[in-house]
Amino acid sequence: MAKILVTGGCGYIGSHTIVDLIQSGYDVISIDNNSRSNPEVLTGIQKIAGKEVKNYKVDLCNFDDTYAVFQENTDIEGIIHFAAYKAVGESVDKPIMYYENNTNSLLNVLKCVREYDIPYFVFSSSCTVYGNPDVIPVTEATPTKPAESPYGATKQMGEKILEDFAKVCPETSIIALRYFNPVGAHPSIEIGELPIGRPQNLFPAITQTAIGKLPKMTVHGSDYDTRDGSCLRDFIHVSDIAHAHTLAIQFLQQDKNQSNYEIFNLGTGNGVTVLEAIHAFERVSQTKLNYEIGPRRTGDVIAIYANNDHAVKSLGWDIQYGIDEMMGSAWQWEQKLKAQEGK
């Protein structure tokens, strides 16, 4: 049973991936300083997967503390690196914080990868590396353009660091997974998205508005060159994203990679506008949403969705959930959170 280290394991995608890894037979440990996550998610993981996961409350920007985890776990075979700040709007307001956190944490982990000869490394990248693409859907060969936010720039930097690292560390095989827009909650409704403060992402903004946590939500821009004037995105269920990480580790373990640095898009291949997503929620939940049209938001890409052929064919990835399941699980999760608050 191979041991996999998940950084940011108490986070949204990290927690779902830990569940998927355990259910696929892996031994998992986590590093998460809980600065942007809730440690109670570990209880949800245990309820679903039937195993307690050890989390090291470590700031990856502290090299000595990071190194100590590897000293204690010399049998780590693979790393899935999620740990990063991820709010586009916040990154525009606090660029230095994003460059420092997202880059230094990656560098410290890679120093340990080199020191301990870790053979497999999977990086949490993002479709923001494409900037505002000239043609959609984007493939892995689509040229990247200037990032629209410091967050996107940190993902471009992360990929460049890994590309250069792979050249001097051929014994480590690396995959960068470019996510589109992960949404929804685990089908068990034991874990889901837990935004801190006012949500920056669309789905928790929708569900928090519908349940009354927010008085109303804003659609940022209605004059874009899209079907209805709102931004167009590729929303994908978080459990589908999570399973792709398990498949990526297996792909590397089975020596199926053509080089020691490969990139995969993780999206459904379907573009959905913000307004279409809102209307889908209203249909699934039978709840009318209080929203208003506001100005464009700095850092937002106009329109992007994935060509996912590479992941489907090479990783054997099969998308299980559609927009109704995404909306339905997100709404069930929000309702569960409210019920827990009332206890």
Give the topology, please:
Elements: E1 3-7, H1 12-23, E2 27-31, H2 41-49, E3 54-56, H3 63-72, E4 76-81, H4 88-93, H5 95-116, E5 120-126, H6 150-168, E6 173-179, E7 181-183, H7 202-211, E8 217-220, E9 232-233, E10 235-237, H8 238-253, E11 261-266, E12 272-273, H9 274-285, E13 291-294, H10 309-315, H11 323-341
Parallel strand pairs: 1-2, 1-4, 2-3, 4-5, 5-6, 6-11, 7-10, 8-13
Antiparallel strand pairs: 9-12
CATH superfamily of the largest domain: NAD(P)-binding Rossmann-like Domain
- Write the CATH architecture name of the largest domain: 3-Layer(aba) Sandwich
Which consecutive residue ranges, at least 5 long each, have pLDDT under 50? none
Number of domains: 2
* Mean of pLDDT: 97
**Major sheet description:** 7 strands, parallel
| End-to-end C-alpha gap | 40 Å
Shape summary: globular
Strand numbers in spatial order across the main sheet: 3-2-1-4-5-6-11
Find the CATH topology of the largest domain: Rossmann fold
Write down the secondary-structure element order: EHEHEHEHHEHEEHEEEHEEHEHH
Identify the CATH class of the largest domain: Alpha Beta
SS class? alpha/beta
* Strand portion: 15-25%
**Number of beta strands:** 13
Structure annotation, total helices: 11
Q: Helical residue percent? A: 40-55%
Rg for CA atoms = 19 Å
